[in-house]
TrEMBL record:
Function recorded in the entry: Catalyzes a salvage reaction resulting in the formation of AMP, that is energically less costly than de novo synthesis.
Protein name: Adenine phosphoribosyltransferase
GO terms for cellular component: cytoplasm
One biological process term in Gene Ontology: adenine salvage
Domain of life, per lineage: Bacteria
Keyword rRNA-binding included in the entry's annotation: no
Pathway participation: Purine metabolism; AMP biosynthesis via salvage pathway; AMP from adenine: step 1/1
This enzyme's EC code(s): 2.4.2.7
Molecular-function GO term, any one: AMP binding
Catalytically driven reaction(s): AMP + diphosphate = 5-phospho-alpha-D-ribose 1-diphosphate + adenine
Alphabetically ordered keywords of this record: Cytoplasm, Glycosyltransferase, Purine salvage, Transferase
Domain spans labelled Phosphoribosyltransferase: 29-167
Amino acid sequence: MKKLEDYVVSIPDYPEPGIIFRDVTSILQDAEGLKLAIDSLQAELDGLDFDVIAGTESRGFIFGMPIAYNLHKPFVLVRKKGKLPRETVSASYDLEYGSAEIEMHKDSIKPGQKVVLIDDLIATGGTIEAAAKLVESLGGEVVRIIFLMELAGLKGREKLKNYDVRSVIRYEGN
C-alpha cells in the first residue's frame, strides 16, 4: 500500500535553485492519492468537537470541501481580497516581498462557533495566521488547524504556536 508521500512529486530547483517544490497536484491527479489525502486529513479531526470548517483559497477549498461534506459540516471560504460579494472582514499578512489580504463574509462565523482551518501547505504560516485572526474577529474559536504538508524548515508552525496544528506529511527542509 502506498503512503501519501509516494504521491507527491518533488521538483528540485523550482522556482529557483536550492528549492525543492512539493507538488500537491500529483496527489489530486491520482484517485487513490486523492482519497488517501482526504481520509488522512479527516482522520486529524477524529473525536474533535467543532461546528465549521474553513478553507483558504484555493487548495484549502479542494481539501476542506469533501471533509465538510463527509462530516455534514458547513464550509466557509477564506478568499483573496475583492472576491467575495457580500460584506466582509479582512486581514493582512506579510509575503516575502510585500503583503496580501484575505477576506471572509462577515456573517460566515457566528460568535462561539468552533472552527477548523484547512489548507494544503504550511510554509511561513502567514496566510493561515491571518485566517485564524479573521475567525477570532468574528467571535469564533479556532480549535484545530490541519495541513496536508508542512515545510518545517520555514518555521510556520512557530507563528501558530497558540493553536493546535496538525500536518499529515512533514518535510524537514524548505
